[in-house]
Amino acid sequence: MSSDLTTALIGAFRWNDPGQDFPHLVSDLSGWWRSPEILHALGPAMAGLFPDSDLTVVVAPEVTGFIVGPLVAVALEVGFVEAYKGGHSPVAEPMTWAHAAPDHKGRRLSLGVRTRQLRPGDRALIVDDWITTGAQSRALGEIVTACGAVPIGTAAIVAECTPEVTAELRVRSLLRAEQL
Ligand SMILES: O=P(O)(O)OC[C@H]1O[C@H](OP(=O)(O)OP(=O)(O)O)[C@H](O)[C@@H]1O
Ligand SMILES: Nc1ncnc2[nH]cnc12
């Protein structure tokens, strides 16, 4: 990845203090999407984390994955599959679901993908903005496998996960959280 993009990502990122009711700072990624230069460079840079991987599809979870995933899919010249979080409007067709372990907010989410959109033989890249526990990414890998496709790895903008999770989920990222 170019050092220009690293510098731009760090410069456009903010930790915001939401006030006394919240015990910790919250990340603000909006500067990344607001920058035409970053938005233009993100997809190719993340696609470049998995060169020569014969990928056929990108899978990403709502909601921020719906921004980042299509950027990477366009760069890879493959299609994009949305993964929904359970608990709101049902999707009126067969879905493949997986239950995630507690994620970085302590939530146990269900993630679901339209079954017909993943095909046996697909080589899927899981894409997300940030990986901490890896719970959501792991659940997406389970869905991909249940559909007969192959999870090749996880491409993220920021990785904050342990070396064990990095190895297990084959996480490659543009930044480590410590850089922000
Ligand atoms: O590695 P994990 O602990 O599973 O955390 C990673 C997930 O957490 C964030 O989503 P979140 O649902 O918090 O926010 P979003 O709706 O803005 O995407 C991020 O976009 C990843 O999807
Ligand atoms: N957007 C985010 N900010 C901080 N930590 C996270 N862990 C997963 N997603 C995150």
UniProtKB/TrEMBL annotation:
Top EC group: transferase
InterPro entries on file: PRTase-like, PRTase_dom, Pur/Pyrimidine_PRTase
Organism listed in the record: Catenuloplanes nepalensis
Protein name: Adenine phosphoribosyltransferase
Keyword vocabulary terms for this entry: Glycosyltransferase, Purine salvage, Transferase
UniProt keyword RNA-binding, yes or no: no
Catalytic activity, EC: 2.4.2.7
GO MF assignments: adenine phosphoribosyltransferase activity
